[in-house]
Amino acid sequence: MATANPKTLEKVTDWFLDDLPSTEPPATGSWDCPPNYHQDRYAPFLKHIADVTGTKVTYDALGHKVDVLGKDATVVEQTIERLTYLHSALSLLTPMPTSHQHHMFLPAHGYDKLQITPFRHHSAATTVKTLASPDEWKSLASMGVLVPFRQVIRQEKSKVTTATSRPAVPSRFLSNHTFRMFGNYDMYNKTVSSSEGSSLSSAADKPVSNPDPPEHVLTLRPKEYYSILASENTDRVTQWVDQNKKSDSTTPPVDPQQSVPPEEYPPEQKPVRGVLKRRVRETSKSSPVKSAKAKATQEQASADPQPISSLIPWKPKPVPTFHHTMAQKVSPGTNSPLKQTTLDKYWTSAVGAFEKEKSKRSKPESRESPPSSTSRPTTTTENVAESFIPTQKYANETPKLTTKPILHADSHDVLEIFNALQPTLEAARSFPGSLQLEAHIELITMAPYSPDQCFDDRVVTVEDWKENFQPKKGTSLAPYWAWNKVTGSGADVDAMIDIIWSKKSPQRIFHETPVDRDVVFEYHCRIGDGSGFVISLDEAGCPSFHQTPSVLGCSTIHFPHRMWDMNITLKGEMNLHCYKDPELKKAIDDFVMTIYFEPGNDDIIIFCSEPRNKVFIVDKILMKSTVRHLHIPLNEEASSKLIFKTVEIRQFMTGRKPNHPRLIRGRIPVDKRQECISARLLWYEVSVVSDAIQKLLNTNQELELGQQTEKWSAVELLGDEIRLKDVPFESSQVAQSIDDSGFGSMYRLGKVILDRMRIGEPQLS
């Protein structure tokens, strides 16, 4: 038997080894853990990132770092970047003193000294006491409020008392809201026969509306300022229909749901003396010339009053009087400078400046010698050389709108507030969930530094306040409390929506017709480890899941010279990642199938059934009704994307049956609003939001863990004031889309509301 040559076998083996695919060693990397890293909290998220990136992520307790093992360096680098963004998002959920900043902007004069008065002496104490629980009021009563320093000590006879609270009535924008039934009807109505309407489809189509509020709620606005509500026109329209039954049937009826626009019926223009009216005859070739008798009959018929709505007072048309005159010259009157000024407003800036200089020189002359009555309403020979005649060059050009933002007087204050929130806003770019940037109307109270301390009109200086509320690094912040429950009466909210700019300019600040309104039902649940999450359902019963809302950062602005304060907050609701616990996901899905909502005229009832294995429990059930009103700028030609947001929050009174402990029944009495306020189950919250900013923040809901959005940045939320951060306005499309509805505009509109709101306003006795 032939044997193989050993040298030949060695060569063949080498040939096969060289052709085998060479496997490169995997790439490795490490991420240094921050000081506040907790392994138990980060472990589920590390597992998710490892599954998404296809890497191996392990925690090294000895080196306090996270080791990443991947197929190449690019994947490892992307995984480490995801870990960095994950830490930025989770760090926002941990309250940190640096994320809560305090500011105070005082008037220029008269506020060198301040004083801290006990909160129980504050004018809004009565309103807050009706909304606070016994434990909350016990804490608030021991706190103090910053107010201006008073030179004269208050006497008992001239003591400031609190204002009488408004009646516990719903807002007129929520009084006629209609609810619809949804959910598992058969689960809680098995004993009802099918003939009595036990099917889910027939029951869900039955709309039930809330009862109308008392009539005195609707008369909150001065009638000489605003248009009449459609609900207030019903009786007047019905009376008009009864009086005009004999009128022509072809006349379209008046819609009681539509208020009559006043601009469709302009006031009657009176004839001006000295101005000739000329009658223009419109005759066609086909129609013959009418006789004088026919003309008189037609004029008499046209002067007869026609049946019109009683909502608009009828006035007969004046019959024009014609005079045969010769060529006359008309006096220009005293309004010729106004006409010239109106025209100058539409020329270019250079021509406007030239005409402004000319008007300054011509104004004293017009006061000394009025123009002659024989002169035409044109420029005289002296003014011909000074007047501007548009040449062909200027006639073809149109005035260009300047896109350069205007520097406001309080831009320095806006920059200070924004600089405090900028690190939080940058970190929020990695937050996967819902974000809301709002300017809340709140009341800021200060807690005593020690249990033995009490506030008894203690005088403080601005430097003392800064030392406690704007401390340097390493110094703890003074304790405080931001109270966001403004009122329990819908009449107070309606009065805020109806505020005007001033008595001289009685224009509304917000549109009376809401932009939108929605109702959300929230189940606040708690897991065994203490963490919580929320199950939200819209009016149709469609569910969504997210973690418990938390304040990621805030800038609190104290206004000692105002009744209330402002708190610009960034709230976040992280998406609920059920992949951490499949058992939890199944329990949530089964729980949603047990929800049943049944509205009624007397009570609003909702049912649910907790999981059998007690994976989570239900702490409370809330119903949030949100109404948004668009802001009307003082300059009506300008547009605004700012919105005044009011939220009515009602908590269900829950109960359980002894024989069915997992079954929960929630109930809201519709008519017993005062009892709900006394039980601290009803309150209102108000804030200012920017619709342009909110649309950008909503894009974070599409993010996954460890991702960062590129659709917006923190400085771009300034809008037209982005140049405060040395960034050109023209270089950012996001800032241009926000424009004048940015961060600073939210702050300014909040100040306008603070100056005009009258909730808890004191009365001198």
TrEMBL record:
User: Which superkingdom?
Assistant: Eukaryota
Where in this protein does the record put region Disordered? Answer: 193-218, 244-313, 355-384
Biased region (Basic and acidic residues) positions are 355-368
Bias-annotated ranges (Low complexity): 193-202, 285-295, 369-382
Q: Where is the composition biased (Polar residues)?
A: 249-260, 297-309
What this protein is called in its record is: Uncharacterized protein
Name its species.
Talaromyces marneffei (strain ATCC 18224 / CBS 334.59 / QM 7333)
